[in-house]
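task queued by scheduler; priority normal; single chain, no ligands, no partner chains; default sampling; output format set to structure tokens
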Amino acid sequence: MAFRFIELQQAFKLTLSDAGLPVGEVIALGYGRWLAVCPLCGYAHDVTTFTGDVYTPRCAGKLAHPQAYANWLTRVPDVKAHTQVFLKPLAEPTAAPVTSEIKIAA
């Protein structure tokens, strides 16, 4: 099931690691870790690796929701050539905390 954190997705800015990989920020929810906004598809992913690792997301949302995926690539075209992301912890908020609802893609 593909889902996204709307506020985090809207605030997403592409950054590249020293190795030239798109950087994805990891958040903790309950006992799990999530790639909050996958730079490659815009959706969230459950990750089992740690921050500082290179991660290869499956990006099921691009198959299940091709129009949303096409919109993401229009917004962030530089990610088309990548298949992996570098994981880093989500930066501490400097303003109000994110109160995003989880939106389940239909």
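post-processing summary
- Helices lie at 6-10, 61-64, 66-75.
- The mean pLDDT is 84.
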